[in-house]
Fold each of these.
Amino acid sequence: MTTPSPTPAGPDPHPGFGPDLARRCYREMLTARRIDEEAIALQRQGVFPAYVSLRGQEAAQVAGAAALDAERDFAFPTYREMGVALALGVDMVGYMASHRALWHGGLYDPMASRFSSLNAVVGGPVPHAVGWAVGERLRGGTGCAMAYFGDGASSEGDIHEAMNFAAVYRAPVVFFCQNNRWALSVPNERQVAGGSVAARAQGYGMPGTAVDGNDAAAVHRATAQALERARAGQGPSLIEALTYRVEPHSTSDDTSRYRDAEEERAWRDRDPLTLLRARMEADGSGDAAFFEQAEQEARKRAEAVRDGVSTAPEPDGTDLFAHVFREPTEELARQQRVWYEEVRP
Amino acid sequence: MTTPSPTPAGPDPHPGFGPDLARRCYREMLTARRIDEEAIALQRQGVFPAYVSLRGQEAAQVAGAAALDAERDFAFPTYREMGVALALGVDMVGYMASHRALWHGGLYDPMASRFSSLNAVVGGPVPHAVGWAVGERLRGGTGCAMAYFGDGASSEGDIHEAMNFAAVYRAPVVFFCQNNRWALSVPNERQVAGGSVAARAQGYGMPGTAVDGNDAAAVHRATAQALERARAGQGPSLIEALTYRVEPHSTSDDTSRYRDAEEERAWRDRDPLTLLRARMEADGSGDAAFFEQAEQEARKRAEAVRDGVSTAPEPDGTDLFAHVFREPTEELARQQRVWYEEVRP
Amino acid sequence: MTGTMTEAAGAARGPAAGAVTREMSMQQAINAALRTVLEQDPDTLVFGEDVGALGGVFRVTDGLQRDFGAERVFDTPLAESAIVGMAVGLAMNGWRPIPELQFDGFAYPAVDQIVNQLARMHYRSRGAAPMPVTLRLPSFGGIQAPEHHGESLEALFAHVPGLKVCAPSDPQDAYRLLVQSVRCDDPVVYMEPKARYWERRPVDTAAGAGDMPVGRSRVLRPGRHATLVAWGAMVHRCLQAAEYAAEDGVELEVVDLRWLKPIDAEGLAASVSRTRRAVVVHEAPLTAGLGAEVGSLVTERAFGALAAPVERVAGFDVPYPAGPLEPQYLPTIDRILSAVQRTLEYERP
Amino acid sequence: MTGTMTEAAGAARGPAAGAVTREMSMQQAINAALRTVLEQDPDTLVFGEDVGALGGVFRVTDGLQRDFGAERVFDTPLAESAIVGMAVGLAMNGWRPIPELQFDGFAYPAVDQIVNQLARMHYRSRGAAPMPVTLRLPSFGGIQAPEHHGESLEALFAHVPGLKVCAPSDPQDAYRLLVQSVRCDDPVVYMEPKARYWERRPVDTAAGAGDMPVGRSRVLRPGRHATLVAWGAMVHRCLQAAEYAAEDGVELEVVDLRWLKPIDAEGLAASVSRTRRAVVVHEAPLTAGLGAEVGSLVTERAFGALAAPVERVAGFDVPYPAGPLEPQYLPTIDRILSAVQRTLEYERP
Ligand SMILES: Cc1ncc(C[n+]2csc(CCOP(=O)(O)OP(=O)(O)O)c2C)c(N)n1
Ligand SMILES: Cc1ncc(C[n+]2csc(CCOP(=O)(O)OP(=O)(O)O)c2C)c(N)n1
Ligand SMILES: [Mg+2]
Ligand SMILES: [Mg+2]
């Protein structure tokens, strides 16, 4: 079983993570936490058929994404990057709509949000990030692509192909692995040969860094450095944010079958929000009033998202057909007529 | 452009490569060379529709495979491992039949030969080696699997997945990459990010060694060590044999479109046969009589293979149907009747 | 040989001698079949993502690792191509692998190993390397799952020379077909209708696999006005449709295809020769779906008997949709009955 | 709309105004089409294995890197899944990618990115992310090539919602279809019949893509006794068969399907309504091949007119074989003529 490593002591190792940024991250991490809690509740109430929690990964997601420039960068998420969506300003009702099963990819606009549609194929979106980044350099842009994936995903062939492509083309991509120690029921020990995703980077001649993924400042700093490097034309890098999936894989999962409750508890104690709050209290970047206000805002926002997603209208059956092609076909129009005549509720 | 590194000088770094082994390797390398030449001639005469030469890679293939135990190990080749086939004692007429297009996988028995059928999917057979090795350990056997692939193949997802699986399961596999600097028209510089296939091994927590692939002794030693390790239950390793494809990719290729004739010439001068002969002359393990006899035997064998493959009967049309299933279906029997009535020559 | 079907609805037969009949869900029946083959054949191995301690996301492999050990039943890293590639290598070393791919939509990353390797190794080696691999694939839709968790890949697999493909529709057949698939010396893709995992039915675990050869279909309900052909979860829907039709005096014959390759062309032709009309129903998108093959086989063999063109009721040519649209995507009873009506009312122009 | 076909044999039409007609092989015509789109649309990119300095293994991209630069035309590492995945990302950044996969059989490793990503990204994003990707795929057999170099994947692609698929049969149509595919805002799989790369024919490079909408088939030879339907290299074989049949007074209509998705169902039905008989010919294995879909479409739309079931002449259900067996695997003229004879002699039992 894995246990968390202790919080680093000594002088602040992250001078770039100033009070404003800390406050922003805290607010968004807390908001993500509260939305997550609402989502779990919605699943219990039967509003969501299932839900995948990001609990415990708020620092890895929010503080990493806070280094992105939402004007020019582009994030390629999996199905668990709710905190990234929040940090990038994605319409959260539209995001959560995916979990209510209103539309697989969510109801937000991925192009306007610079946050690709939710993607359920483990490893699948990572080559897209590379293509986007190659395209960005070809047109002389300065944006970077951020490719999210998990420890389990690191086993997929697509991850390897994508890293090799990115390094060959020196494309501005940051490969951001949230190693939350578990891929559904399989722990790192039986998933990641060698034990380190970050160590894979060297084989492609690119930098790979493992950071404490529950330490917002460390995540932010590593991400900012990787983005700077990519923007300067020095090519891709890989960040492995070491964190933990404190909740089950999804609401349909049962962790008692495969992992120790003790391990979960130990990691719950290393809650990224608690850690960040302690740090902010220590360095004075957050006082009681700030935390109180953050709590109120987060709750309010989470409730708004909850209400919004709960009451969002179900998609119309015409949507089945509307987005298949940009240039519609007669056959699909014929099938839509069948739907209209024989199925339409 | 890449140039060969100089031959290492100083005391013999490969004490394990004794006179008998050197003579065996030389004989088989020379035989492979002569069969290769016959094959190129057969292609020019129109007997083979196309041919992929192993010229320049004889040391990497023969001296590596000479470390295998043909009683218990199993090799998984690509389409270019003619020297490996020879070293393992595969029926060479049956092997060459694949190049005459008599049967894609060749006409030899891969199970009896412990040399899998020729495989044209770049990267595709590598996971088979891992499965075979996992199965070998499960049954308590002591055999090892040898997985061949090229520098180009190293970019495929299957290679990554296979290495990760092998290392997770500590399977007795040797990943043997012949880096001949070119994957068809694409050189290492635009194929292998980071520049070293061997360097990828570390990311999986397994040993990775780059050896001079034109130095038979070095190849043999590295392979023997990797096999020993695997047999002792210490898991997989990766060998990168640095060599060069001195011929075009295949007889249909035209290297003048993409590489420098100078580079080819430089590598032709580092011919593995010349190197081994010089070494054997220096240490006395081969005298003029030996080399003369080796030449005669190689020629004789090559001519026999040439004659055998040229005169081998074409497969019968019934073979189209015979090997699809072990438990035949009525539909296929019906189709065979159609063939019998409407197609049979 | 005769192409007629040998079995009426399984439930209608009395228990065989030595029968061990228990009520179980399909997911339990598959588990029981895996236990049978793990017990009887020491060369069998069960592996895939999360099949070990977790017992699979649908608990189909529940308890197998505990009972047969982590050497026979084991988790793999998360990589579908390597899972199938490993199965090929294991088969070459004398094993009888039973890999699982977690969901239909995640078979796509393994397609190269399935098509170019698994399906061809026996052919490529001229019979030297048998591939007795049973690839379990939780399949089809109907459970309001996320993207890539509700798809039907049978047309892809049925088109691949060297593969056999089957899909059960009830617990008894799930048991029998799985044992039969594992014992088959050729690679079989075994497609499990997730939507039917939970319904409980009596299962006779002593029922031999041999009593129905590979490729045989079943008439689950006899009828004389038209034949409904389906597989997997759609069989149940067709049986429901037949109930409704019966209320209007229309007697529909329901054929559970079971084997999607080889297809029981003779059995289908025999049924349609009696009913003169056929409707094939599947979840996969219409175009180039297996319904086209079924329709072609029926038409080729029973053209003279056919009073109307074979009707196809299928998923629409759209990506499998999310929750609320799923019931509008999948063939509905209304759509099946409309097709029946069209075929009954058909008049040659 | 009318489903009738608008074009008789291309060669029979006079040159259009502004026509630039040159004799060229299909491989040159595709090269010319790539030049046209690279010139006219600065967002187009050509990439794949060995497409740069080498100009592709068939020289289809010959000189493009030299003339358009290594930013617009570039080699990739050897990894098909990443090639398609990169195309998806490039499209999301506003490009119009034209990736090549080197051979049919090497599309399998990319199937996940093609099916789960390329074909769905537009849908998944509710239209926000267009995927104007043209995937070039040297396809089909007939050149006595190694394993995996002679396969026909059209049934797989045609079944995938969100994809369009086409295959030219001659240089002129290769030019026109490629320009049309690239300009199409949806993903198109463009299947090139390798066996027809070398035959030279006059090509009018000013021929607009617009004169035949996506999904339209062509009657290449009119006839009244039966309709032959084919695509790719089999079109030529059907034209040859029609020549032979004509010697016996049998007038066969030959339809070049061109678009394999969407399929010109109306056009086919119109032809078969006249001829009352149809034979569909393809290289892919019979079972679950696209011939089943063509046959079903024809039968559904022209059942009343059909005097016999639609005949299918296809590759056998065996892995694509090596050299000497290739001519026995591919549909032969004899097999086509036998099928024609069967359909002409058919008598309703
Ligand atoms: C290609 C593919 N295979 C299998 C699955 C089923 N699946 C969904 S999530 C998951 C585990 C993923 O683990 P990891 O990458 O570590 O991400 P995490 O869930 O921990 O965030 C699996 C096996 C999938 N979604 N995609
Ligand atoms: C999956 C796959 N993609 C593409 C090809 C076409 N192809 C055949 S050989 C080759 C280059 C292989 O290079 P490398 O792995 O270095 O092996 P080498 O030919 O140098 O021995 C390519 C692209 C193939 N055979 N398989
Ligand atoms: Mg994880
Ligand atoms: Mg190479």
Amino acid sequence: MKISNSLIKLGLLIAVMVGMGEWSVALAEEGTVPTIDTGDTAWIMVSSAFVLCMMLPGLALFYGGLVRSKNALGTIMHTAVILCLITLVWVICGYSLAFGPDIGGVIGSLEWVGLQGVGSEPSPDYASTIPHQVFMVFQLMFAAITVALITGSFAERMKFKALLLFSVLWSLCIYSPLAHWVWGGGWLSQLGVLDFAGGAVVHISSGFGALVCAMVLGKRKGFGTEPMPPHNLPMTLLGTGLLWFGWFGFNAGSALGANGGAGVAFIATHIAASAGGLSWMVAEWVHRGKPTVLGIASGIISGLATITPAAGFVGPLSAMIIGAMAGTLCYVAVVWKMKLGYDDSLDVVGIHGVGGCIGIVSTGLFASIGATGLFFGNAGLFGIQVFLALVTLAFSAIGTYIILKIVDWTVGLRISAQDEEMGLDLSQHNERAYS
Amino acid sequence: MKISNSLIKLGLLIAVMVGMGEWSVALAEEGTVPTIDTGDTAWIMVSSAFVLCMMLPGLALFYGGLVRSKNALGTIMHTAVILCLITLVWVICGYSLAFGPDIGGVIGSLEWVGLQGVGSEPSPDYASTIPHQVFMVFQLMFAAITVALITGSFAERMKFKALLLFSVLWSLCIYSPLAHWVWGGGWLSQLGVLDFAGGAVVHISSGFGALVCAMVLGKRKGFGTEPMPPHNLPMTLLGTGLLWFGWFGFNAGSALGANGGAGVAFIATHIAASAGGLSWMVAEWVHRGKPTVLGIASGIISGLATITPAAGFVGPLSAMIIGAMAGTLCYVAVVWKMKLGYDDSLDVVGIHGVGGCIGIVSTGLFASIGATGLFFGNAGLFGIQVFLALVTLAFSAIGTYIILKIVDWTVGLRISAQDEEMGLDLSQHNERAYS
Amino acid sequence: MKISNSLIKLGLLIAVMVGMGEWSVALAEEGTVPTIDTGDTAWIMVSSAFVLCMMLPGLALFYGGLVRSKNALGTIMHTAVILCLITLVWVICGYSLAFGPDIGGVIGSLEWVGLQGVGSEPSPDYASTIPHQVFMVFQLMFAAITVALITGSFAERMKFKALLLFSVLWSLCIYSPLAHWVWGGGWLSQLGVLDFAGGAVVHISSGFGALVCAMVLGKRKGFGTEPMPPHNLPMTLLGTGLLWFGWFGFNAGSALGANGGAGVAFIATHIAASAGGLSWMVAEWVHRGKPTVLGIASGIISGLATITPAAGFVGPLSAMIIGAMAGTLCYVAVVWKMKLGYDDSLDVVGIHGVGGCIGIVSTGLFASIGATGLFFGNAGLFGIQVFLALVTLAFSAIGTYIILKIVDWTVGLRISAQDEEMGLDLSQHNERAYS
Amino acid sequence: MKLIQAIIKPFKLDEVKEALIELGIHGMTVTEVKGFGRQKGHKETYRGTEYQIEFVPKIKLDIAVEDKRVTEALEAITRAAKTGSIGDGKIFVTELQSVIRIRTGESGEGAV
Amino acid sequence: MKLIQAIIKPFKLDEVKEALIELGIHGMTVTEVKGFGRQKGHKETYRGTEYQIEFVPKIKLDIAVEDKRVTEALEAITRAAKTGSIGDGKIFVTELQSVIRIRTGESGEGAV
Amino acid sequence: MKLIQAIIKPFKLDEVKEALIELGIHGMTVTEVKGFGRQKGHKETYRGTEYQIEFVPKIKLDIAVEDKRVTEALEAITRAAKTGSIGDGKIFVTELQSVIRIRTGESGEGAV
Ligand SMILES: Nc1ncnc2c1ncn2[C@@H]1O[C@H](COP(=O)(O)OP(=O)(O)O)[C@@H](O)[C@H]1O
Ligand SMILES: Nc1ncnc2c1ncn2[C@@H]1O[C@H](COP(=O)(O)OP(=O)(O)O)[C@@H](O)[C@H]1O
Ligand SMILES: Nc1ncnc2c1ncn2[C@@H]1O[C@H](COP(=O)(O)OP(=O)(O)O)[C@@H](O)[C@H]1O
């Protein structure tokens, strides 16, 4: 009796470890076959679906509500077509470039082109308790949403063909390498950078790509002189809700299992979103005299974007501070934009670019779970994180610039003034949003 | 090699046990450390996200579609800001008051302030197969939505500052104590009351709080004389769908695991929603000559609210009866409101108050799974349930009255007549929903 | 005591196997008691909720946005009331007819009427790792959505009473038998047909039922002469996103567990949706000169409908080909409709009917995982699949015709010309969508 | 020059437009309006509360025509817009003092 | 016959309608318009950027009345629509050359 | 007093408003309308079916002006609203018999 009981206890002990990511890795190292855990698999499939929901309908409507009604469909289309397109790009070669067997720390090999060798067994390299294909599709969603985020900066004026070409090039030349460097075993990961769910890979890269887009494409006709109020804020709030909802998959899914680490990321995400929403609201209240609904929505997204790299590494109170900083500083960044004079139409730079930087740096400051940041005594991490932010920013900005030039020379970037007057919906798609 | 292999197999064997809910309970009783089950954890994280989705965008749009367009954003804002605010309140001290170590059956201690001691291990007291933090965030969603429900009663006329103060006070002084009494080991739970997912804690409390709000704030300008049709019913139907969807997390998540009990709650929830929708539709059809879309939506919500306390305790046919009663009686209650003459603008009393009461009492009648109600031979439970309904109702009504008076004395409850004419969106937030 | 311990160990052993999809089948055959797996249960509950989300709000808004604004609510109502009604029908006897103990390969017995015997233990016949009730509710969602899909063909002109009667009859007389034949152990399943998640049972049956409806009800007033543009395409795109999201539950949930097979279905679903969206967009671009937003949305749904029967049986590249065929051929079918002159108002035939046929046949061609199609050397399966498509098509078409005649004789099918002019919202429901 | 303002049932717009085009009148301006008159509106019901909505959707057409074509225009509109049931609408005619085509600056009959 | 065009504050519509009905005037046509005038509009703020919105929502009423009732109609409208604060609106009166009831084809005063 | 009704391209509204303000005309009423005329509309495509939409969004401005300012007002509008391409719109002028300011009850030129 006692012996069998202790055996059971021992087993349980082991079982716990199985539940925890690190052990399965250990086991994999011993050469055993990793096994699928149904709970982890369920969670990552759900998380993948959640991230899809962040894009379509989430981001599509968030952006769609912010533009003028003559551009509502064209704006939604950006996210929709990017989602379809990057899915195929990722399956064909994007995944292999990002996560395939490493070549010199720089890029993944083409071994997994067309998902060859990406089967329903766990991968030996990533997420040892879920099917490799599920890991692949979870990463696919990240690849797609990153490109979609950028579209907010050139809303209401990009040629549709240009959008297609830009998206494919950007995904292959900016996203896949970056994902490889940070998550696929590349050189940055070897330096020990921390990016839990994509503060650098997703938000800094899209945010500063967006800045370059806004500068290269130029202002919208009438920007700064005529009011361009959002045509449907309830739609934007709907998008906000779906983004928040989906972000649980984005961040807590990045634990790659339904374990304690996922729980840490889940609550950090939720708390930062709330703190971000409130702090933006208060900042605008103080600055402009009224709390606004678009303000709280923007603050929520700022909080979510900012906590992304830190989610799995910080406790609830740190998350609250990070979220509060996010809402305030992103608000300041967005207000400054008007002074700098570029037309980042839906504030991708101010929210994702600035938020991503704050998040990456904050990870170096506040990390206390599974890593140690400056405030807990490890100055080294802070330096590494600042370096990560700068490298990502520079790589994305320069790469985006080159890609835009290529697109401009080939198909042209911007629609004609007359088409802009008419709106994307009629000029690019022969459709109207509302009849 | 072989030895380590067999050890691993043994470990796996045992791991399976972790997968089985009953076992971990048995084990916990033997005094062993509770272990995380990935399936249960996945389910409760999903459920938490689902309940978030019930609020934003769910409830926000459900309510937002029902008001006049000049108040659309202000109404959505109520839910959004409450979600952010109560998140912080809960993290800082609400959770500790509700679920922290019991003080005399009345309130939780402040031991868990700032989530101190709420870690990624299961709590010894609640939900032994999921991280304590995940249990905490699941409960957080309940705390937030309860306050948000109330806002329907004073829609289109509450000062924004008053809303903020009211929400914080209500959550701390009404919700946390009630949650403690019923779910946190407090005096009501010691009496043996049954409230599976919040018929009393969530629906009766918000519903009768709402009644007092409607009475204290008074009618909207023009109420009863001019038509105030919902400005966007498709938006309300969207909200209905998301509420239904999220309610699976709310109710089946309250099983705190992905087990047979969750399945029981899941199907009871679904059946009661359907029966509620149809019965309200038929009642209105008989009464007014036409079945309405808002009617079926309202009936669905009535069914969902009503089954909430009973979901895990009743079989499918009982759920059908409870749902059918819900749709009919809530319809009657809502029609009566016009006669009583108070302006519960979005019918929080008629749906959540009345529905909650029916549900709590029905649990005492129909319980047959894991508990026994009157119809299955246990009159005692029935009495206890009626007592629970009355205590909750009285506590919430009186408490809400006091809080409203405090808010009125400090920041004032109601916007000026001119602001009301203008609408919340422009007067409180300098924004318009549609441009 | 020792014996009980060894028994426990034995149970555990078996439990492990249960955790692994393939094994559980073997065990069931050996007659052991199936046990619940929390990961699988979490996944199927989530999947059920996802399919609910596909209907309300998903399909309801997808369809609602496509009609004219005077019919917006009436169209949403179709899905809402069908969801409620078929839920009760299914619980009362539909499930028993479809999945109850087989009678001669033709129909399920009435043994499980009112869900008697459908408990929270796994069923011995279906899905041995999840509660039987959870399997039942997952199937319920399929039953409901199938009927709801049809409503697109007779949008804007069906009497509400007729809709109710039609739905009940169709579900009982067409859906339940078909589900039994293919999934409930009936004669088609005995032939070895493959229908992973409902290409025949759901899409062919609703698609060709819809064709008959469109023909019997006749054209809308003004069809072909006056423009009937969609009144709210952002709403339709919102629906598209929610359908895509929910379809992960529909298809990957049909693996009935969170295992490798679910992963296979998940990625096939996602890839086919993307390929479908792009291929329809390109087809329309070539044909009409502009890529459209409604086009990509329609292509996404075509891809999803088409991959449904194949999802668990095909690899990613096959899924891409199937999706690409779906988008192109469904576009062609929809354009042809105008030539054939029937008014399938929201293109149920062109998308679900045609898509379902392509999918069922493609399964016979491309199956390579757990089954072998023509392209992998097994011509037999191809023949069987063609047979399945034809049988389903004929059964649904004929059955629908008879049901429509019965409904016409009893309550009448079509609203008056004046009511049609006025719109469903005011004439059938005394409501307006927007005020 | 006269300005004809016709208030008609919305679904008659296409027929009226065709009738005018047949007369060679190729310009008009359309406004969505709500009418109040003999035609009673409709009932709406929200959560058991009934509202009588008295305003009925109508279309207002503004058409500037040369004096000599007014009679035939009025006849054409009346014919095309008529259903014979209450609520068919009204036509109002006012005198136009001048008409200008913005594009060219020309005024008078040629500007229409 | 005269055509009265009254531009009023939206929330005054019901009162004006009642006032006209009391006079026995049972027909009117309502248009949602935006007004620009002495009444300043409002401020809107989106992400910290302020817009001054100068156009104010108004309701335009078109009412055809027989000449003899014009004065009382104008008085009734003025009384009912007045709040005394800036932005109450204007009333414009023009001469109607003819009025036709489409349903019956009748014209003149009987058509109103 | 005259009532000027100008039908213009929507994006010209601001310029026209500025031009009028420069003249000291500080009141106007704006209606969203659809125009039908020489300017052909646009094509829309839904699931492969093409519709020719003949109605084009326009803005209608109603401006009451004293007689003496009519000419300059017409000139200002024409200048500001002109793009030179088809569809620039029309201006209609009618005689106003009286104008009342609701707030004060005053009528005539002072009421504008
Ligand atoms: N005196 C009026 N002034 C302006 N518009 C009117 C007047 N009377 C009727 N109308 C318009 O004509 C429409 C039709 O009038 P109504 O009295 O309903 O029917 P009928 O045209 O058959 O007499 C009304 O909805 C309203 O828009
Ligand atoms: N000259 C004008 N022509 C046409 N409409 C005018 C004119 N002046 C004012 N209006 C209309 O009357 C409304 C009220 O005018 P406003 O100057 O704001 O206040 P008040 O009526 O108190 O003088 C304006 O919003 C506008 O719709
Ligand atoms: N006869 C008319 N009556 C009323 N409005 C007219 C008339 N002709 C044109 N319009 C209005 O003027 C607008 C511009 O007219 P259109 O013929 O397209 O171009 P243009 O002004 O360059 O001649 C039309 O869209 C319509 O709103």
